[in-house]
Design a protein that fits this description.
It is built from 3 helices and no strands. By secondary structure, it is an all-alpha fold. The protein has one domain. The radius of gyration is 24 Å and the shape is rod-shaped. The N and C termini lie far apart (65 Å).
Length: 163
């Protein structure tokens, strides 16, 4: 009977976690830039006289603002989902670490059981599923972020600001 070696899977999962964290940081930096852009737009709007804009321009800007608000709400929902998945990932990780320690202890002098291998494989599979869901959330966040960037850009153009 060939022993199952979960350490190879763990290395692959660690790489996925690292890439997720890296991608998340990039998205967070872009989000901060978008939020600064929104703040600058709002500051500019507060400092100018609305009478210089036509009703059509004001309506376009209001539409963009509503779209932006809707995107912020979607982003908040994704953040909640991310938080739940992160907690689930941590719970699985804690269990897996205990199992792997036990596995290593057994591997040093005894043969691991089929049941234990199945438990380890099951937890690793759950962990992979959580990571896949987190990757989907990041993809959705990127899509929302692109729309927010477009809204900020369109708003700047509408107000005649340099991009």
């Amino acid at each position: 009977m060939e022993l199952y070696n979960p350490f190879e899977d763990l290395i692959l999962l660690d790489n996925r976690i690292y890439k997720l964290a890296e991608r998340s940081n990039i998205i967070n930096n872009r989000s901060e830039k978008v939020e600064r852009g929104k703040y600058e737009l709002q500051s500019h709007i507060n400092s100018i006289d609305e009478s210089v804009f036509s009703d059509e321009e004001i309506e376009k800007y209001n539409t963009l603002t509503r779209q932006s608000f809707d995107l912020v709400q979607k982003r908040k929902e994704l953040a909640e989902g991310w938080k739940k998945l992160k907690n689930e990932r941590n719970e699985i990780n804690e269990f897996s670490e205990r199992m792997l320690k036990y596995y290593k202890d057994l591997s040093d002098g005894a043969e691991t059981s089929k049941i234990m291998n199945e438990q380890i494989e099951q937890k690793l599979s759950q962990f992979q599923q959580v990571l896949t869901k987190q990757e989907e959330i990041l993809s959705n966040r990127e899509n929302i972020l692109e729309k927010e960037e477009q809204i900020v850009s369109q708003s700047r153009q509408l107000l005649g600001l340099k991009i």
